[in-house]
Task: structure prediction
Amino acid sequence: MTVLITGGAGYIGSHCGVAFLEAGYDIVVIDNLSNSSDVSLQRIEAITGQKVPCEIADIRDQSKLEEILVKHKCSAVVHFAGLKAVGESTKMPLAYYENNVVGTHRLLSAMANTGVKQMIFSSSATVYGEPQFLPLTEDHPTSAVNPYGRTKLMIEEMLGDVAASDPAWRFGILRYFNPVGAHLSGQIGENPLGVPNNLMPFITQVADGRREQLSVFGNDYDTRDGTGIRDYIHVTDLVEGHLRAHEVLASGSAPSNCFAVNLGTGNGYSVLEMVRAFERASNKEIRYAFAPRRDGDVAECYANTELAEKVLDWKADRDLDAMCRDTWNWVCKNPRGYETSAD
Ligand code: NAD
Ligand code: UD1
Result:
């Protein structure tokens, strides 16, 4: 049983490749390397001791997708490929609609033409918009405030329509909260190009001296210390959730042929709590200064995890210290990401 992993050279996709290989599945990766390096694929091979067939290609190339699905006898897809930077999406909306929405449309068309009818899709807690209540349950109203978020919502709706058209389709929509951390080996991890947008990679670059200080976006939120609260989840827990979703879909035990579940821990931590946890893990001072709120940020966002526990029989169990420790281990072993290694 071969699982096609789109975006499998990227941050979450590479960890997912390891999890699926270790669980005994064959995988094939498709990635255009627009936001990743093929060194990650060599690292997956080093961790698992297994070959990782990879096609350097674009998911918008439907005939190539059909060729790959047939050649590798794929029975399911885990779909990570897409663009993910919120700020960039407001400047380049067409690139986001094309990569994410058109790309997913081509992928679904290729799957339809080759009879592959199971997909796990990487969605985001961003589809909940401004929380009307917390913790966020899957039936919280959805909305989006930027093109990136709208692509996720459009794709969720597209999957719902396709599932309704034919019960043979099986979709698991996984709404990630804030994935952080790295593989325990320190061989794969998050490798952002340019200035990081997200908190954890920015903190790591302050810790290793690449950046002077962290700007904490807002200290006047109605939260326990005035800074934004998020639900950080270890990437290894996150990909174990994918494995469970795959098993649930493949065994026919899903609650419906298109379900959506949150992948979070249910715990919220503030920006300052993250800074302190990272200082503990790295034994480095993280210099910071308060800055104005960032446009589009919400004060607080964390998951209700009951549905994931029930549907997937899965619960995240790695704590904040493990998330920071594993991130720091990855950064120390790979001070310039996949460009160089400290070994
Ligand atoms: P990533 O950028 O590291 O991985 C995405 C991969 O897809 C990259 O390797 C990139 O080269 C590839 N790719 C992009 N467009 C492609 C295309 N048209 N054809 C082929 N390959 C393409 O990102 P990630 O953090 O691993 O995120 C994976 C998925 O999870 C994305 O869909 C993202 O929107 C979603 N997600 C991520 C987060 C997060 O915080 N990292 C949160 C919520 C949802
Ligand atoms: C962001 C995106 C979200 C996306 C997610 C994963 C926005 C508005 N939201 O979520 O759509 O799914 O990334 O890619 O961009 N922070 C700082 N200083 C920094 C960076 C972040 O104080 O330099 C704060 C933020 O204000 C927030 C918290 O840290 O309170 C987490 O930020 P981030 O890691 O960017 O994640 P989200 O904003 O939750």
User: Anything to note?
Assistant: The mean pLDDT is 97.
